[in-house]
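## retry 2 of 3
previous attempt timed out at serialization; input unchanged, resubmitting
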Amino acid sequence: MLDGWRSRRPRPAAAPHGSRGRAAVGLAALVAAAFAGCATGGAEPRSACLRLDADADLNLYNEQSHPVTVFVFPLSSSAVFEETPVDDLLAGVEGTGMLSRPAQLALGPGEQGRRFEKLFPGETQHLGVIADYYRAPGDPEGSRRQVVPARCSFFFTPRLHLTARDLYLD
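## retry succeeded, writing output
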């Protein structure tokens, strides 16, 4: 009688050796796909930041202060950015080393300590900054462009100072 209950119950089949192999191959394929995605996706995005200070007489026109739009270009190389006329860059001319369209922010007269932080493409080495000041025909060009390292940390944040007509690196 003891043999009866054992013989009538089906025994679970042992997993064939091939199923472990298939699982290992599937896991390996998943890991390889993840690494392949990282390899083709480029470098990790880079965080870069600026601190901006504006004088009370910012963007002076008709003896009144006005906000100014600041453009921040991610650059892998600053050479073309520095050689291209500012008005051409503002018109959308792109060159070697410019990684994407510029980020924009508006800065008001007297605004102090404005922090700008953004993730840029991983190849970004520099930030090209342009302040789009109003310029009447015949006005002197002034300084509207700066290039700073694309970094952001507790100990290093590039600081830019916008005066009535010029952009300076502090």
